[in-house]
Write a structure and sequence with these properties.
- This protein is an alpha+beta fold.
- It is built from 5 helices and 8 strands; from the N terminus they run H-H-E-E-E-E-E-E-E-H-H-H-E.
- It has helices at 14-35, 41-44, 155-162, 171-187, 190-208; strands at residues 66-83, 93-109, 118-120, 126-131, 135-136, 140-141, 147-153, 213-218.
- The strands form 2 sheets. Strands 1, 2, 5, 6 and 7 form a 5-stranded antiparallel sheet that branches. The protein has a 3-stranded mixed sheet with strand order 3-4-8, with helices on one face.
- It starts with 13 loop residues before the first helix and ends with a strand.
Length: 220
Amino acid sequence: MTTPIRRVSRRMPGWAKAVSAVVLVLVVFFAGIRLSVLPGLKDLFGTETHDRSGPALLQSIQDISRYDAASGNFQVVVDLEKDTKYLPDAIRGSRTLYIGAGSVDAYVDLGKVGKNDVTVNGDRTSATLLLPHAQLGKAALDVDRSYAVSKQRGLLDRLTDLFNDNPNGEQAVQKLAVRHIGAAAKESELTKRAEVNTTNMLEGLLQSLGFKEVNVRYGT
């Protein structure tokens, strides 16, 4: 006598069908947003920016006695590469090509001019001024005109960016750009231009006050 073979039911449980249906709907839903095949969905999940910053607080006031006589604009190409021993660049390493634009001011500190540094003759027609040499201010990076041309990162660096509060940070190349801009300003004739402009300013000012001869020297 032949024993009948029972067929095992492989039907999907009801809860599994429900979960599969929900997942399928979500996939289609977000695919529609991604491919823009469902009009209006992008607006539904559109992001809004709200500025909830508090008011700026004045912490201190500093009197400035310097005369900003010249300003130089600089641009530098920063090529920063970081390698790791015994690991290929594809695994661990980075290289960033960055265009840095910034400026450096040159000034004369008139606050250092003392009473003995200014000499006026008896009839107030001639004046001699002894001023300190012009100095360079700190290099300032213009972030609106600076940008990264390319970024190459290894696999481990990319994974680190996922858990970093500031992924793809550009602080290193920005600091390097500021350093190069400051060095370029020292090699330029920016301070000489500042002294020429200061001299012209003081000559025009004192001549408008009636002085016929104005001598400006630098060296204190």
